[in-house]
Amino acid sequence: MSETATLDNQIVKRQGAFEKRVHEIDFLRGALILLVVFDHILNCFLLHSESWTQWVPSNAGFAGLFNAMHWYWYCEARQVIRYLALFLFCFVSGISSQFSRNNWKRSGQLLIVWALLLVGGRLLEAYNWLPGTNTRIDFNIIGVLAFSTLFYCFIQNCSWRGILASCLCWFLLSCYLLPFLEAIPGAHSVYNPALWDGQQSFTGDWMPLFPYIFFFFLGAFFSYFFYSQRKSYFVRHEWERPVCFVGRNTIWIYLGHQIVLIPIFMLVDVIVKACYGLL
User: Fold this and answer.
1) Which of 2, 7, 141, 145 is surrounded by the most beta carbons within 10 Å?
2) Cβ atoms within 10 A of the Cβ of 37, count?
3) Measured between alpha carbons, how far is 184 from 16 in angstroms, rounded to an integer?
4) Helix, strand, or coil (residue 25)
């Protein structure tokens, strides 16, 4: 939020992050991460409500809400929205890479976070500390952004031709070379399918590197021309501030929201069981 200060008897208005940054990028990223949180809330509710129906007496309102959650989770519209949101998130992250002061540092931080999630998820799975919950994390959106940013570091000082060439390389690799390798018998022993095979969702939070790294570089290429001056194209509105704040802190919200949601729903589960004498 902007502040005021007095300098030489004149009121000077200090600019905050909302005024300095390209707000539409923060807004879009914030809206996308809020959509992710909403999706995970409904998922948690659906997973628990399927067991709650075993002991909660018949209630039309509860049954209607459960049916709505079930419809949302398995409807085709969610599949379309989900992939569109993932594409936009990687695309916007590619745009933001043009604004970053130090992409090497940024990629290093993301790699550390991804490694902690990898080790932590494996430990939770190995010791079964959260029974009934798939906590194994091999590769997810943090891994995609970490490696995409890392690879972008090597061409960040190139001209638009270099960025375009990188886009084409990732596109050909995602759409032609890797599918070709998949068709070869025994090819899965050569590469890690968790990095790209979109059909094998075998972890709690999973997302392939390919083709989403292509969308990241596509965003960087777009930003090279449309945000070369790092200026907003849209007028700022005060009501955008909360969403833009979320957009500036997406990684912390992404990491923290499940830590908050899981205990909440576990507590509600205990309360529901206690109310009906099932503990």
Assistant:
1) 145
2) 18
3) 55
4) helix
